[in-house]
Amino acid sequence: MTDQRTGAPTAPPAPPTPPPPAPAGLRERKKRRTRDALLRASLVLFTTQGYEETTVDEITDAVEVSQRTFFRYFASKEEVAFAVQDLVESHFVAALAARPATEGPLVALRNAVLTAWDTIEEAVGEVVPVDLHMRAYQLIESTPALLAVHLRRSTELEERTARLIAAREGLDVDADPRPRVVVAAFSGVMRVTGRLWGQGEDTSVAAIRRMTEDYLDQIGPALAADWRPIRT
After folding, report:
1. More confident residue, 13 or 79
2. N or C: lower Cβ tally within 10 Å for the chain?
3. Given a cut of 90, is residue 227 above it in pLDDT?
4. pLDDT value, residue 3
């Protein structure tokens, strides 16, 4: 371009100044909101129409984002189905780590899981409503594909928990079988209560907490030498 008055070339107009990038904290909050929205929409769809019947397209349509956005946050439907369960399990492990050293292993496990149920809102409340998580947990217990994954994950959690118990007691978990044995007994009760609770009509936190407490209290009597009543 030239100046019409002087005929001299003029510099091209400067490109528009791009808007300043969003602050890092704002970007992270936006990502968190998108992830949480995808998570809530997924669990709502899973619990209303079934896990296997729900497609990724339906999830993204509910949030009005692309499939590419979904897979930016979750590798698969399976991962999103267990995302809140990850929070719950970490909450339990933190509760166990916080138990006083004066408690024996089984007492610490019992108190940790009951405390975790009492404070479940702290674990999941910022992400999903607690009642939605409980419905999703019931779905896991009643969906064969998800239950198989849940059992595999439970094995991994058992090992993590056994190592934590061993550390509390100052033991080598690979040399002393007791941490794994006590965690196996505890985890067996957890699986029983989860299955029976999932089959019931009351899917509240109070119901599974009450059942968990009742069944844990039966570990001692179940290990008694003789279950038969004394005959006179």
Report:
1. 79
2. C
3. no
4. 53
Q: Are 103 and 111 in contact (CB under 8 A)?
A: yes
Query: Residue 8: which residues within 8 A CB-CB, separation 6 or more?
Result: 2
Question: CA 77 → CA 2, 61, 84, 133, distances in Å?
Answer: 60, 15, 13, 16
Average pLDDT, the chain: 90
SS (H, E, C) 118-143: HCHHHHHCCCCCHHHHHHHHHHHHHC
Cα of first residue to Cα of last residue in the chain, in angstroms, is: 115
pLDDT value, residue 232: 61
Residues 163-172 have a mean pLDDT of 96
Q: Cβ–Cβ contacts within 10 Å for residue 144, how many?
A: 8
